[in-house]
Design brief:
The complex is a heterodimer of chains A (about 110) and B (about 110). Chain A contains no helices and eleven strands. Chain A is mainly beta. Chain B is mainly beta. Chain B contains no helices and eleven strands. In chain B, strands 2, 4, 5, 9, 10 and 11 form a six-stranded mixed sheet that branches. Chain B is globular. Classes of the chains: A mainly beta (about 110), B mainly beta (about 110). The interface between A and B is medium-sized, with 25 and 26 residues.
Chain lengths: ~110, ~110
Amino acid sequence: NAGVTQTPKFQVLKTGQSMTLQCAQDMNHNSMYWYRQDPGMGLRLIYYSASEGTTDKGEVPNGYNVSRLNKREFSLRLESAAPSQTSVYFCASSEGSGRAEAFFGQGTRLTVV
Amino acid sequence: KQEVTQIPAALSVPEGENLVLNCSFTDSAIYNLQWFRQDPGKGLTSLLLIQSSQREQTSGRLNASLDKSSGRSTLYIAASQPGDSATYLCAVKGGADGLTFGKGTHLIIQP
């Protein structure tokens, strides 16, 4: 009954370091998403993958790259971390139709110092 | 660009009260609207999903309504309990991309 699983749960990076946030879902969903949550800003979409093999930019894509590795996995990469990328990152998935319910992971709390 | 607003930003009420959380959105061309609950330091838990063709959905003590033409939704919580304390988020889906979220209502139920 895992749903959407994100790793790691917490991470501290130094400015300029790189890292990859991992996300996997076991619900056979077609669509996957990455959001960031900042105080006073709400959740904002970074990138999404409407189906396996496709990725598209969301509202705040700068400084990030994504890979839809297969139907289950969608990773988010920070090539050169900046303090402005300190945030809580959430991965989500949905069946893929416009009417489908979205399910979220537990989040990754990232601090860039 | 779709914008979602939630009012009030924070609410504190005694246990047992019925309460209403409000959500408004600027573009009525949506597929659905979803209400989530978020506990401190945790992920988002889906509470209710209302399709654009529906007027309301119910789950236990929760009832959500949708008036798509006026761009409004309400989440009604009956007989509130301290365990209902959390941040409640409203989000709308307008296309193949993701959800557009409001900033949430921080709810405290006093024992």
